[in-house]
Amino acid sequence: HEMPPEDKKTSTDTTNRDAAADVVRDQLNALYAGQSPAASPSASPTSRPQQAQVSSDPTAQHMQQYHSQWQDYYQKYYERYYVGHLHQALTEQQKAALTPEQQREQEIIDLRQKIVGNAKESAKKARKSRHFLPIASAFAVVLVVAFLQYNEVLFANVQAYVSPGTIDPQNIVVDPNANVQVSPDPKLIIPKINVNVPVIYDVAVSHDAQMAAMQKGVAHFAIPGADSRPGQIGNTVFSGHSSNDLFDPGDYKFIFAQLDKLQPGDTIYVNYNSIRYSYNVTKKEVVKPTQVDKLTYATDKPILTLITCTPLGTSTNRLLVTAEQFSPDPSKATAANAATSGTKAALPGNGATALEKLFGAR
After folding, report:
1. Which of 65, 100, 155, 278 has CA 20 to 30 A from 37's CA?
2. Whole-angstrom Cα distance, residue 218 to residue 324?
3. Global pTM?
4. CA–CA separation, 245 vs 294, rounded Å?
């Protein structure tokens, strides 16, 4: 009685699979025995089941290719299966031969390799994801916008720990009460925070005029009631940047980044008309940009006030540092020439950021 075609096919597949498994098993036995797999009798071509003769029938040829592919698949599968078990057995034997300390070190190494492998695999999957590029692009845009808008905050805080100016050795004062001849160049010198900066006089009190002057140093801010100059009775006011947009011109964008470090008793020097004027800090105060009245008050002394923005990287408030002249003799100070404009001017601040310049917001 002849078998149905389905039974013949199943029988043939089983025979081929068993033959492939026998080949792999013989090779592994040869490896355990210390022989070359080729030396194993089962690995020789004669031990494999003889292939059926190639038929001219296309259907028969297709079936032969089908069986050959399945036979190769099972052979490779069993090879990986048994070789994997062999590797695991050898690894366990090697670990058993290690000391406890070496075992812990090996476990740490294995864990590290596993973590690195998982991280690489996750990164690989993320890079292949169709969402990765849009998300990365959006993140890059956010970083660029944030840098354009808030670079003042970053660089101002860095500058707060770096000297914003350089002191010329000839400006180091040994006796602040000595009357010495100095250069006619107007200067503001604050040794404690290493400031040595030009002072720009005859500046209008408008925002644009003050910003332009502060590109070259600190600006004289003269309004009625606070319009004196060094050596004159009244309040002499200088404005300078503690921060400003990185892309704005000028070399003094962070000249007052450390102004908040000044304390009562610290000394400030101003060179004006070839005379060095010495001041002692008396107080510090934080005010709103509109509180111009904080500069205008009655006094019979020569006073110096320094203005800058605070907190660092913003123009939210203004820091006022007030100092009184003690050298030359303040009792010999002269009267100031009265200013005629600027009563409604706001306290000087920062320039617009890059984004504010682009979109016109302030």
Report:
1. 65
2. 19
3. 0.55
4. 27
